Amino acid sequence: MAPEGDYDIYVFADLNGDDLFRDDELVGRTTPGKPIPVGRKYAEDNILVKGPTLRLDLDHPQKADFPLAVGGITRKSRYASLDDEFFDPRYGTMGLYRPMELLAHTQGPFFQLEDYDPHKTLILFVHGVEGTPQDWKYIVEGLDRKKFQPWFYFYPSGLPLEKLGNTLARSIMLLDQTPGYGISNLIIVAHSMGGLVARAAIDRLCRDGKPRYFRMYISFSSPYGGIEEAREGVKSAPAMVPCWIDVASDSEFLQRIYSTDLPKDVPFYLFFGYRNKSGASGDGTITLRSQLDDRIYVKAVKTYGFDATHVGILNDASVRKVFNEILETVEP
């Protein structure tokens, strides 16, 4: 997600243990005069640019050709509660309009409430536009934590959806390959626009065949048919948040994700809401036509409708009861 350009890479190590990276602690770098070009045409899946192999020499540090004395960033991924200020709703707004600031805040894609247990089924929750993991609080409080462990994809929702989906897929694959973090069972659960992010991630995750651990996909109130207002806005707005371009009805992104099918051996359950005080068909935010788009509706093992609003569906006792019953069908 760095701006396009040519980059030199410098690697520093805190060799003296003073919690600072200093200019005389340079342990590796790219070859002088041979910077790494970064841009869309060099990126795989619009995310990763293949870099060179760097040789690190901690025994013979060099001095950089610029002054440096910066503190290291300690990334925390486990929090005791979703009520933690780290997940405050204001960060959802930040992620929509100032995505790079949210990336600086999170420093990584996944967060959890407990130490990882490879023997439990991992449920990966994907929030919607302008959301945070805090949106899942009520649903998570009803989980059987002896069987299931909740993880959360905390992402800047303003970015292009395909990029967010590819990042999610790659992060899942990397997690499975990390020693001590092998995935036994994975369920992906998404809300709102997170359903489109999850759909893109599933396409990437299953490109070379369904992973052995991927067991189920569940979505709540997702705009699978896009949003007509976003389509009209894209036509007239002088500037547009990237995600709105993708969520617009008939967008190129939507056409791409429906060019491939969901894995036939991964059960998909679709939840939708229909409470709307205005009398229009939908949940007050997403129309029923979009929630039940034919391209996705026919792929669901079962579809559940609730008298709930777009946000209220995640805080409804009947919804949570059905959700937990579905989870119990996943074999250990």
Written overview of the protein:
This protein is α/β, with parallel strands linked by helices and 332 residues long. It has two domains: 5-71, no CATH class; 85-327, 3-Layer(aba) Sandwich (Rossmann fold), CATH 3.40.50.1820. It is built from eleven helices and 15 strands. It has helices at 90-97, 99-106, 137-141, 161-177, 194-205, 228-236, 242-247, 252-257, 288-291, 294-297, 317-327; strands at residues 5-7, 10-12, 20-22, 26-29, 36-38, 43-44, 48-49, 69-71, 110-112, 121-126, 148-153, 186-191, 214-220, 268-273, 302-306. A seven-stranded mixed sheet has the order 9-11-10-12-13-14-15, with helices on both faces. Strands 1-5 form a two-stranded antiparallel sheet. β6 (43-44) and β7 (48-49) form a beta hairpin. α1 crosses α2 and α4 packs across α5. It is globular, with a radius of gyration of 22 Å. The mean pLDDT is 91.
Beta-strand proportion: 15-25%
For this structure, what is the CATH homologous superfamily of the largest domain?
Alpha/Beta hydrolase fold, catalytic domain
The outline comes out as globular
> Overall mean pLDDT score?
91
Which topology of the largest domain does CATH recognise?
A: Rossmann fold
- Count, helices: 11
Which stretches are poorly predicted, pLDDT < 50 over at least 5 residues?
Answer: none
Assembly type of the shown chains? Answer: single chain
Just give the CATH class of the largest domain: Alpha Beta
Q: If you compute it from the alpha carbons, what radius of gyration comes out, rounded to the nearest whole angstrom?
A: 22 Å
Largest sheet: 7 strands, mixed
| Total number of strands | 15
Helix content: 25-40%
Q: Given the helix and strand composition, which structural class is it?
A: alpha/beta
Give the neighbour order of strands across the main sheet.
9-11-10-12-13-14-15
